[in-house]
Amino acid sequence: MDDKMNDVIDEVQRRLGEEYEVKRVEVMKNNDTKLKGIQVRKRDMNVAKICYWTGESVDEIVAVINRS
Fold this sequence. Notes:
Strand content: 35-45%
Largest sheet: 3 strands, antiparallel
Number of strands: 3
Number of helices: 2
Strand order of the largest sheet: 1-2-3
Order of helices and strands: HEEEH
Mean pLDDT: 89
Structural class: alpha+beta
């Protein structure tokens, strides 16, 4: 699954271009639960969108990012 996540990150980065930074993150949630996610941040912004990884396709991740 990690290889697929890396492929999705690479493709999302390609589609969004150099204006955005796309990277893998691990977020600690309640009850010491760690979730893997894909963080997307516009390079000149201090906030980012995290899409928690559950095996979505590139198109599904891009759709989530576009909606936000």
